[in-house]
Amino acid sequence: xxxxxxxxxxxxxxxxxxxxxxxxxxxxxxxxxxxxKGSSFNLYPLxxxxxxxxxxxxxxxxxxxxxxxxxxxxxxxxxxLKRQMxxxxxxxxxxxxxxxxxxxxxxxxxxxxxxxKSFQSIQKKLISGLERCLNK
Length: 136
Hints:
By secondary structure, the protein is of the alpha+beta class. The protein has helices spanning 2-16, 28-37, 75-92, 94-97, 119-135; strands spanning 39-43, 46-51, 62-67, 106-111.
């Protein structure tokens, strides 16, 4: 019987650490709404833009990840940074999921630094930013 409980825990665990297509912010209407009406703050090298629209039907939080082409001309570098940011969000999104009533529904995470940072520093700033989004 213990193995059945262990299998249930293993089956539940990957679901909490996924970053599915439904969580990606892709709608141009919602993206323009996020940047026009949303609030923002910087935690170098990241910038957080967040907004909770009233007319959005209930569902998951949606996240946008972006890296500027101005400072990272090579697509390889931009993709590497976006991959690190998505991974850091995927591992720490439970911070937002624990408080669904306080969490912003739309979240933009932009990399504003001029040089590449390590995954640990990006993850540390992202955790601080997610906690700050809850407190606002």
